[in-house]
Each structure stands twice: as C-alpha cells, then as structure tokens.
Amino acid sequence: MTQDSNLESLRYVDGKMTLLDQLQLPLIVHYDAITSVQDGWDAIREMKVRGAPAIAVAAALSLSVEILSMTKANKFSDTSALKEHALEQLEHLKSSRPTAVNLFNMADWFKVYIEDKYEVLSKDSVLELAEAIDEKAKKMMVDDVSKNKLIGDHGAEAMVKMTQKKDELRVLTHCNTGSLATAGYGTALGVLRSLHAQNLLKRAYCTETRPYLQGARLTAFELSHDKLPGTLIADSMVSMLFKNKMADAVVVGADRIVANGDTANKIGTYQIAISCAYHKIPFFIAAPTTTIDLSLKSGDQIVIEERAATEMKSISGVMFADPDIEVWNPAFDVTPATLITGIITECGTFYKPEGSDTFDLSSQIANI
Ligand code: MRU
C-alpha cells in the first residue's frame, strides 16, 4: 500500500477475496487470500479483520467465494444442495465472534434472501443461485461505504449543533472505527473525516485502546495516512484531557445497540462516557442501523466476548506480564443510554425523547 492508496480492510474482485491482516499493522501491510468460509471464520476469530461492519462484510464475501468456487467445481447437484450448504455455512460464520450484531443480522437477512431466490429458480439453476449470492455480498460491501458517508455527514452536523462550535472542533475517539473496521470510510472515524473535509476538525484524539491497541496500531495509522490532525493518548489520559479542556466532544462506534440505546462497544468506552458526563462533554455513538438490535431491551442482555489471556499479556508475541498471573479480558463493555448524547446513523441522529433517560429506538426507527 502506498501513502496515496485508499485503506481497504478487504478486497473483492471477480470472486477472489483478499483481506488485510490487521494483526501486522502498522508495520507490515499484507493481504491474505480468503478462499473459503473457514478462512473467513478464522480471520474473524483471530481478529485479522475486526470491527462490527467489516466482520459482517468479510463473512458475507467469504460465503460468496466458497459458493462460487464449489459451483465452478460442480459440487452442487442442484439448487437445493447449494442452498442447504449456504445456510449451514451462515450458521457456522455466526459462531466466530459473539458481540457485534452486524454479523448476525447479515446472516439472518442473507438466509431469507437465499430462500426467496431458491423458491423462484428451477432446480438446475445452480449457477444463477451462486451468482445471486455473489451479487448480494458485493452489494453489502458497497452499501456499507455509502452508509458510512451519510453517518459522517450526519455526525458532523450533530457535533456542530451540540457543541455550538462553528470551527476548531477537538474530538476524541476510541478503538478503530475507520476504513479498517468497515468496507470503507468508517463510522465514528467517518465523522472525523467528514468534519475534516469541511474544515471543522482542529484535532482528533485517539486512545491506544488496550489491550489490543486498535487505537495505537490502526486509528493512529489511519489518521496519519489520511493526513488528519491526530494525537495519540493512552487510555488512562482521557479524564486529564477533559479536565484540561482539550476536547469538545467524543464519538465512538458500536458493536450492538439495543432498543433503549444501551451500547456495547470496545472495552474502555464506558469509562470514557462516565468521564464525559462528569466534564459535561457530549458523547456520541456512530453506527449503521445494522448495528441496532431491537430484539434486546437492555444492555444487560448483551453477550460480552472474553478473549484469551495471551492477548493481554503480550504484544506481537512478546510477553510483558508475569506468565502465571490470571487475566480477565472482556473485549467490550456496555455504556448505558443515560450517558449517551446521541446515536448517529445513516438515517440521521437519534436523541432521547424529552424527559427520558433512555432512547426508544423501536419507535424512532419505525418513524424514519
Ligand atoms: O474487537 P474489535 O476490534 O472488533 O472491536 C471493534 C469495536 O469495538 C468498534 O468500535 C466497533 O466494532 C465499531 S467499528 C465501525
């Protein structure tokens, strides 16, 4: 990748998929070939690709790659065999990581889509069904980028409105929500890109985001790559930043937003939101509506992934903590709706109804 090229978490051309190995960033830029659903599943589980929207798109494309290559090798006797295989593999993909709902939403919508296509095709239209799956997966990739651009613009507008600032916004973000966490542009980082494009961004602060360092390794890389004014801070510096009046607003992404607005996002998000409330700093979530899970009423119902101890005790294979010490390593936390100023989506920004501590996303979305 050159400094001028676009950052791409994944590439997909003519049924061939490659995926940027984010474990090696920022030192090594290397794309791995993904030739099957199992390759996609492994890359998601190992966090070579991560970020809620990117996980969903990577999973969908890995399905398409597998179905196309099996179809070309005449592995399906008829459309029924193809459909059964695709539905099984969608279920399998759901088991790769538990918290980000985009993957589950993608699998459920894809299942309905495949079943509908199957109904209208004749039994021997195997290639047509495979190509329909391919078209759908490619569309998900393209749609993700378009939604992110809308999120960026709605977010920039919401921030200007909330902070009453016409220029010189200084905004903190956490984890990585940029091109690397999506099919392109990014969600919370997309808001920063959009502010920058409108000359409204004075500085983007990014946290290191321990233990996996998505901020230091990925967000700092994206900010520098796209020449946004960026400053990296350790997670433990956030409250000091606010106390010193160095930030006007915060925008972060989400892995699952439930009906009342409680939001699961990268571990450390909750403590940033608490500090925002104390320092009276607006705290925004930015995510596509595919991250909203209306089936859950409260954040207490969200399954939080716990990851391996080695991910906390070592960096790039180098151990820096006592090998015998026990570790608790939840990958996400839940920020209660009370602490959230607004939820920025591609459809606009949702705020809490007058006099309410929580959002009412079911009715707010129904009214779009
Ligand atoms: O564990 P990760 O790196 O997949 O976690 C990523 C996050 O928590 C992001 O903030 C979230 O997925 C939104 S990405 C647009």
From TrEMBL:
<dbReference type="GO" id="GO:0005737">
    <property type="term" value="C:cytoplasm"/>
</dbReference>
<dbReference type="GO" id="GO:0019509">
    <property type="term" value="P:L-methionine salvage from methylthioadenosine"/>
</dbReference>
<comment type="similarity">
    <text>Belongs to the eIF-2B alpha/beta/delta subunits family. MtnA subfamily.</text>
</comment>
<keyword id="KW-0486">Methionine biosynthesis</keyword>
<keyword id="KW-0539">Nucleus</keyword>
<feature type="site" description="Transition state stabilizer">
    <location>
        <position position="175"/>
    </location>
</feature>
<comment type="function">
    <text>Catalyzes the interconversion of methylthioribose-1-phosphate (MTR-1-P) into methylthioribulose-1-phosphate (MTRu-1-P).</text>
</comment>
<dbReference type="Pfam" id="PF01008">
    <property type="entry name" value="IF-2B"/>
</dbReference>
<protein>
    <recommendedName>
        <fullName>Methylthioribose-1-phosphate isomerase</fullName>
        <ecNumber>5.3.1.23</ecNumber>
    </recommendedName>
</protein>
<dbReference type="InterPro" id="IPR000649">
    <property type="entry name" value="IF-2B-related"/>
</dbReference>
<comment type="pathway">
    <text>Amino-acid biosynthesis; L-methionine biosynthesis via salvage pathway; L-methionine from S-methyl-5-thio-alpha-D-ribose 1-phosphate: step 1/6.</text>
</comment>
<dbReference type="InterPro" id="IPR027363">
    <property type="entry name" value="M1Pi_N"/>
</dbReference>
<dbReference type="InterPro" id="IPR037171">
    <property type="entry name" value="NagB/RpiA_transferase-like"/>
</dbReference>
<dbReference type="InterPro" id="IPR011559">
    <property type="entry name" value="Initiation_fac_2B_a/b/d"/>
</dbReference>
<keyword id="KW-0413">Isomerase</keyword>
<dbReference type="GO" id="GO:0046523">
    <property type="term" value="F:S-methyl-5-thioribose-1-phosphate isomerase activity"/>
</dbReference>
<dbReference type="GO" id="GO:0005634">
    <property type="term" value="C:nucleus"/>
</dbReference>
<keyword id="KW-0963">Cytoplasm</keyword>
<keyword id="KW-0028">Amino-acid biosynthesis</keyword>
<dbReference type="InterPro" id="IPR042529">
    <property type="entry name" value="IF_2B-like_C"/>
</dbReference>
<dbReference type="InterPro" id="IPR005251">
    <property type="entry name" value="IF-M1Pi"/>
</dbReference>
<feature type="active site" description="Proton donor">
    <location>
        <position position="255"/>
    </location>
</feature>
